[in-house]
Fold these 4 entries.
Entry 1:
Amino acid sequence: MVYITGITGFIGQNLSQYLGESIVGVNLRQSAALSLQKGDALVHLAGKAHDLKNTSEAADYFTVNTALTAQVFDQFLASPASVFVFLSSIKALEGQQAKVSAYSQSKYQAEQYILSKIIPEGKRVYILRPVMVHGPGNKGNLNLLFGLVKKLGIWPLAAFENQRSFVSVENLCFIIQEIIRNPLLPSGTYTVADPKTFSTNELVHMAGEALGKKVWFLKLPKKLVRLAAALGSIFGLPLNTDRLEKLTENAVFDGAEIIKLLGKPLPLEAQAGFKKTFKSFLAQ
């Protein structure tokens, strides 16, 4: 049996459909007590996502992402269950740095708690650090980008050239499934990313193709765009500094290690994954 916390979230819904039968959704808001049996797997997805509107209290991240993860992991260690998968974030890599987000720190501290424990014989523990995940049901920056292309047919940030790593939710679910099934896969911390990277401009082009419309790429001065984003942070507008960074920063990560260990190719090619995601946006 596979127990999934956060099963009602974007990744949780996709994972439950991907795994099919033999899953149990865990609602930690109602009860944090788990009844794990021998051979069970526990996939801990529940967490507080990074708030790009900057309205969340820092303490909330540590309560949910750190303390709750520690509580769930302790129950796994005390149980006869076999596999624990913690969905961390690539942002945890920033957790040791000064002046980083509470989100990054909370994920990093959760990882450190897990790594500080001795893993009993017969148990396997995996920390997954996915890059930006996309797919059907996704909400966030990709939706904002797609909506802008759909409504206006323009992309005003074309002056920003970047490359970013992404992973389709289908490929992430595949990796989690294979981890659970493969008793020979060593415990560890793994980056999860599709092999191919994309620029935001390429994503806008693919969004336009999905919509069947021509997109006008505007190269507005970067200083002007950054000023507009700074004002957006002050006045709570859709384009703010955090969102601009998300859309235009370089963020390339290598997820080859876990793919090599699995010994199988990912089921969905990176560009096909985005086509699937944008097609789902059309249906919304």
Note: The radius of gyration is 20 Å.
Entry 2:
Amino acid sequence: MKTGSMANNEFIIKWHSIFYQPSYFIRSGLYRYVRLLAPQLNGKLLDFGCGSKPYKALFTNVSSYTGLDIEVSGHSHKNEQIDVYYDGKAIPFEDGSFDNIFSTEVFEHIFNIEKILPEINRVLKQGGGLLITCPFVCPEHEVPYDYARYTSFGIRHLLEQHGFSIKEQIKTGNYFETTAQLKMYFVNFFLPKKPRFLYLALYQLFILPIILATCLFNAILPKMFKRTDLYHSNIVLAVKK
């Protein structure tokens, strides 16, 4: 359920990503906290909505890594590393098959989320962890299979109503980063993508300054101005009750 045309290294954010990544603030927040929380998951892991498995290398404590995805989605699965397909209704594994489950940027693409969460709960062992990410402020993507945006309260309620308790909950980004990211998306829409050298040259002129200015403001402004009721993504580590 992740954009199939994006290479894995576009999810792995390094310092030099500021020079070519138009989703820099969203991607950097996701990568930072998935990397932080991934070591807490071990044993048999299911990547639900795996796509190209961009974060697989971060899960160093797992004994097996199984990728599950839906066959019909908003992008091609060509060159993706999907081990098992499912029909969008029933997950084709026995009860308690996995010690932990990981799912990133998937829940917004599930129209019948209240039917899928019981399935996720079913194939997870008692006490197993569920690490998810889902966007709050983000343009429509993988259309027409983009159905929802969840507030921090909404995603917590959904998980608690379907047999999970919240262990950790994180918001990525703040007002400055989120508004800057939206400006970057807007500018990037108008930049010619080919030839590549022209795109990168224009990126340095029009997008890189937004990133640098936003990072500067984040560094010097007091915390009271960095409101987090407008933010990029929810990251939740929950446990099956």
Note: The radius of gyration is 18 Å.
Entry 3:
Amino acid sequence: MSRRKRALGFLLLALIAAAAAAAIADGYGSRIADRYGPLRPVVVVATDLPRGRPIRPADVAAGLSVRRVPERFVPSGALASPAEALGLAPEASLSAGSYLIAAQLSVPRHGRPAARRLSGGRRPVEISVSGADALLSMGPAAPGTRVDVVITGEPGPLGRGRTYIAAAAVPLLALRQGVEGPGGTAAATLGLTREQALRLIAADSFARKVTLLPRQ
């Protein structure tokens, strides 16, 4: 037998083996679905989440993941999307690897009065911002205060990062100094819609700076 024929023979055997493996996998998957139900998305805690701290866009991006689990094994009240946890705080510390259940989360205590003033599908979401010393010097955010959330990205090929408004005229519910003290980052609680929160989650992965610009 020539070398070419042997190569063709090996290729044919490989294709037959691949087809057989795929058929076995499909059959196994069908049996699992028949026995335990279809697969459903479930939010899983990827990194430990402390008790009482509101879940921020950065936590959603890095601390939560989604797995597909047979319906029979999905706990009652399990979240299907990480965005559902935005702005809520764990009632107890959550360990990595556990499912995220709605009953484990609640509106943060400092955000409850403000949450009653929100409308239009908004919910309180805490984000880290830079350059907030001027706003902090004005004291607690007054009811009705609105700000633009401005994102500055990392420098590109031309040496400058893109700066744009990621969320316009959103309610500023609370603002407190970060652990670094004056000149460092601050924690801002904003009333965001789901779409605005998702934009900030996406922006947080490449943003160099997040700034609040007060509305006149």
Note: DSSP finds five helices and nine strands in the chain.
Entry 4:
Amino acid sequence: MSEAHEELLNVYDARGEAVGSLRRAEAKASGLPVGAVNVLLVNSRGEVLLQRRPGDKENGERWDKSVGGHVGAGEAWDATAVREAGEELFDDPASRAVRLVPDARALATGEPGFDLSKGVAFFPASLQLGLRDVRLAPGGGVRNVLYHVAIYLGRTDVPRPGFRPQASEIADLGYFSPAEVDRMLVTGELAPNMAFLWLTHAARLLALAT
């Protein structure tokens, strides 16, 4: 979604309970936590799927999580994660190539009829309350937004050409080895919040590849 898109977003109290909704810009400036989802995906080779942000977006030209987005008014965390994965990776918010599973065990055992070479599957891993996000604004400057972030971890073996990334949100997609992600972190090629995600969830994510 473009920065100009003024959809209604959930805003929350400190405990993570939705207390209302505001237009996007108002929500981010309100001082109340805004809801967001972050999805990290790894393939069977232990490579992490990352998206590169377009130059006219926040954190433009930097590599970021596999999928990310805001929780819309009245929307639940899980519904947002599924919708955003469909939109960003397959240009279809209702894509059948996206599957939410309850936990890592369900991901490991798989589900009948679901092929990871054609889709993505993930589970809710954690909820981070009160994350003071730091991001680079389009055209320069730094923005701070208070977020509650639902984090999801998962698997995919879709080859890069098998994705249909949402052109308005994603400049490129790529698979990267853990060593490459480490290097990108220390050289500033990652979006700032990817440092938090990588440091806190990389070990658990990479364990899904085995």
Note: The helical segments are 24-29, 77-90, 104-109, 178-186, 192-207.
